[in-house]
Structure prediction request, 714 residues.
Amino acid sequence: MKKLLLSILLLASATFLFAEDGYDLWMRYKAVENKSLLTSYKSLLKEITIKGNSATMQIVKDELIKASEGMLNQVPLFNDSLIDGNLVIGNIGLFGTPGPSPTITIKEIGSEGFVISKRNIKGKSQINITANTDIGVLYGVFHFLRLLQTEHPIDKLEFTSAPKLQLRLLNHWDNLDRTVERGYAGFSLWNWHTLPGLIDKRYIDYARANASIGINGTVLTNVNANATILTAPYLSKVAALANTFRPYGIKVYLTARFSAPIEIGGLKTADPLDEGVRNWWKEKAREIYSYIPDFGGFLVKANSEGQPGPQDYKRTHADGANTLADAVAPFKGIVIWRAFVYAAENPDDRHKQAYDDFVPLDGKFRNNVMVQVKNGAIDFMPREPFHPLFGAMPKTPLMMEFQVTQEYLGQATNLVYLAPLFKEVLNSDTYSNGKGSTVAKVIDGSIDKHSLNGMAGVSNIGNDINWCGHPFAQANWYALGRLNWDYNLSSEKIADEWLRMTFTNNASFITNARKMMLESRDIMVQYSNPIGLHHIMGTGHHYGPAPWVSNLNRPEWNPVYYHKADSAGIGFNRTSSGSNAIAQYFPEARKVWEEINSCDEKYLLWFHHVSWHFKMKSGRTLWDELCYQFYNGAERVKQMQKNWNGLKQFVDVDRFEHVKQLLGIQYSEAVWWRNACLLYFQTFSKMPIPSHYEKPDKSLEYYKSLRFPFAPGN
Ligand code: GCW
Prediction:
């Protein structure tokens, strides 16, 4: 009996020990299991020399202590005069002679890159982590710790790295009342009520996490903006956050409501060419910089979905952007102007509107303006072709906008790893300057010789204990940072790193979990938006399927606008016989979509209205192919569940159960998408769901009757 009790107690404490809540993200610093690596890491981190004593170098030190205690069960000795120690860290200016490895030139790495090198000092080998700036050193240290966390051998280390993109940003769609537009992980991290007095520990951990993946800017507020953020009491709160983030290399940006001069300035107009308005913005900028000397600048959504903007005064987006740009220019600030625009009065295909509005403005923006373009022309769909603006505005630096929060990709209940989506877009060839003019090369400025460049991700972060809602959604935050640093990294490599740091280095866990991640986005596309279908989700909250909706005020808010199903077929004809949106792409780029018979099937219904009887490459009719895709997608979620169940032994109880239960929800959502869409489209095709598939167990009426008045993020 005693024995039994004891083992129950032991079991309980083991469970307790192993339970993890996900708060530590990919910075768990768990004990290194590989014995020989452990020994070499331990001797390396025994005595560390850190040159310099800035706040950033203090962060370096704290991180090394934390990591070393966790991974090696050892507290390093810091000796800043010990130049022949094992590990010497510091920015290049602070090294005496002999400096770090002479074989690597420190010039090429710029202000944020770093060098990790090995040299021999008095017969002993020494590792140096150095950079031109302390922030570069911090990035180098995080990289080095990642090597240890992923159990990388360190006997040969000669590594130079610099970010490919300059502005690596998160865009928070956080409201001042702490709700988060399209947020599925709780409320906003920013507690405006207790700022500036209270610096929540989470602000610091948020900054650590971002610095660890190279994110160097954060837009704190929703693009559907509230002008109150630009008033003095709020600016002092913003300043407190900026002060917290600064030593981590993170700049703060705010969204600017275009009508702020009226709303908080008491002016009669917000006309960007009005002298009073221009002066108001200049004064406002001066005020902001008095609080935050390194304020990054403004992000603006204007004349889109009801937001005010320059067109309200018959001015252009360039007029609007330039007024704000002139205000921040004396302080080296920038304006990021969004190209996500479409207007109620414009009856043309929504796909075409941003291009039509912005291409004529190319060359008309000040040189501290960037135009931020969503990855696709509609709206962050599970799969969409790259936005035709990429490559079409050579005189304007274009910033990429991805959505990390999964508004249209299963929100926080579905496991969907987004790196493959990001990569698919970045690798797409625009042909703007001949073959090889990929979207990545457009945004990094290399094709059109821009010095400003960057990539933003709409954040999926909230105050849930695990930050992102779904334990695997953390990987999407991680991927945004890693691809921003180096868009050539493969999805596989990023998943591998993240899994090792977030769960375990166990090889069989990694192989299986990585496979699941890599397939997950394709699976999601299959059970929700196959063959180029898009925008057929529920109204408002965008949760689940509702392809039947046709009663919303604006045509392009209705799913029926996008799928155009009728008795003849389904899909949006965007070729020359239809809306001709396809003409916005360069000829070589659009070639793969133009002809119905040769169109890449991933985008078939995006560009064509296709007969239900059309013969697909698989030999199936379009209708049968739709059935196949929906059924196969849902079936593959079942496979994901099985895979995950097989990984139980490698994962702590809490996170294992959390993912397991979410996969259960994901399966039922996949079946819901499948049944609702097929039953609805069947009312047009009048064709049967092939008999070898299990029949939908609910009626179309049932699916139509579902309501989610309190779905999150809306
Ligand atoms: O995807 C849509 C979202 C809106 C969002 C808008 C935008 C912030 O449904 O919630 O508004 O895009 O990107 O501006």
Q: What stands out?
A: Residues 12-17 have pLDDT under 50 and may be disordered.
